[in-house]
Amino acid sequence: MMENSMILLNAQVQFLETKLAIVHIPLHLYSHFIQPILRLLTLTDGADEVDGLPRRKWAYPNAFTNISVTTIECSVVCPRRLVDELFRPLIERLDAKAKQAVIISNDDFVVIQVGGEGMEAGQRVLDLTAPLALAGISIFFITSYYSDFVLVPYNSKSTVISALEERGFAFEPVSNGHGANMTNVSSPLHSHNRNSSSSSSIDLLQSPGTPPPATVAEWQTKTFSTLHRHDILPLVDESLELRTCAGYRSDSADIHDAIQLGIFKCLLTNPRFMSITLTQTDTVSLTLDQELLSQFPSSGEGILLQNDQTYFAIVFDLRKLPEESTGIICGVAGRLLDRLGDEGQGEGTFNMSYLSTARTGNVIVREDEVGEALEALIEEEAMSVDGINVVANGH
């Protein structure tokens, strides 16, 4: 754990002390799991103080939790012990077919948090994850209102550190001996090398015995070949407009309760799209169907901080991939930056965020950029070459 974060391209980067599991729940079983999901949202450790300071009303007791309902699935990321406590007993009571449909990850995951605001946030994540991609380490991305989170296998933590060090990241032990500070002393962005940073965020994990691609170009070719071979196309629901917001940082019990009640109402309506991210350091973050904002008190009452932009999700349904595969979202994101970023069009930085769930990849882009993004992805799909074998893991 990196107790004292260093700045990475204007961002704070740290490992969060946790072991997470990822749960895939098919939408037709979503209603069966409402109770454990709501219980997960209302957890409290009963402590009045944290590190000698009063506990903030809006602070979540666990390091990281994400609950996402997309057009494809419900996905839950939370500490393994809570999966065993809240979800496993219910799964055991399902019939055989339903029990088989709900999937809990075998691997535990640890989270790298990349904090810092600004439109370059997605680029910062790509800069961080490029060495992990080239090392063949499976990763997931979840973007919140405040931070980006990169999930990596817990058992690969030492490999992750080594891979980052080999690509120019420097690690130093902290005074308590439990972690490391991290700073990238040779960031591609510091040298303005856009191609090496954006296009190298392909986080596919080769099947056993298959050597990883030697170049970023090979990663991209194999990424889109995999999508093409499994008939996976990018999809956009033009009727589903998204907004990103966060709970107002207040210790008022009334505001806290109003936000929580609004979230409960949204989840009970079987939302078309809603992603909830909870951490110990920030207020709740939401990316949700714009129509769900009506479940919260008006913004004039200081309940939600809102991004004024309207977004759309470009969705990849990854359920067709082999069982050990969990997504290719970063390969897609890297290609989008290449085609639509600074060097692709010369019209400014391409803005996007990520939501990796258990069985879907979601690239979330602004309303005015979704058309160009979709065209770029469909063009790449058409250019894919058959006959290249690759297994994709992570997003």
TrEMBL record:
Region annotation (Disordered) ranges: 182-213
InterPro entries for this protein: ACT-like_dom_sf, CASTOR_ACT_dom, CASTOR_mTORC1
Domain CASTOR ACT residue range list: 105-166
Compositionally biased tracts (Low complexity): 186-201
Pfam families linked: ACT_7
A Gene Ontology BP annotation from the UniProt entry: carboxylic acid biosynthetic process
Stated name of the protein: CASTOR ACT domain-containing protein
Organism: Aureobasidium namibiae CBS 147.97
